[in-house]
Write a structure and sequence with these properties.
- By secondary structure, the chain is mainly α.
- The chain is 58% helix and 8% strand.
- It is built from six helices and three strands, in the order ααβααββαα.
Length: 168
Amino acid sequence: MSVMNVDDPRVTAIGLLHEVHEGLMERFAPVINAAGLSDVDFETLIRLARSSGERLRMSDLAAQTGLSTSGVTRVVDRLEREGLVRREACATDRRASYAALTDAGRERLENVLPKHVQDIEDSFTGLLGKEELEAFLGSLRKIRQVVRPCATAGIPAGTADAGSSVHS
């Protein structure tokens, strides 16, 4: 009979990570929701804003957000109806299309980001010293490379972590 070790530090690590993630998302939700955005809407807009030309191939956007192709299509459809993104045809591949940030989408982000960044500072990054934060970010990138290697799909090699959203 095996002995169950609920005090295993690996179990503690994943539990803490889950609790921190859930707690941060709860803190961030009021500001994001007040801007008329869901978490996935906000992540989509941030990823487009941080991408070259403020646009991404739909397939890369799906990979970065972890959504299925149909899921990202629904999100982009909704954001397009609100005028926050637009679709652009790919000049070199008729099967591909891009989602691009519009001026209205950029304005929505500009309105929500100062308070969102303050929330991040107050409940996350501001609690860590410079070296702690750099080490923590390095650790997160190392783990992300294993669990979500597509999170930087479409980002040129050697580019700073441009594909990361504020949440990931």
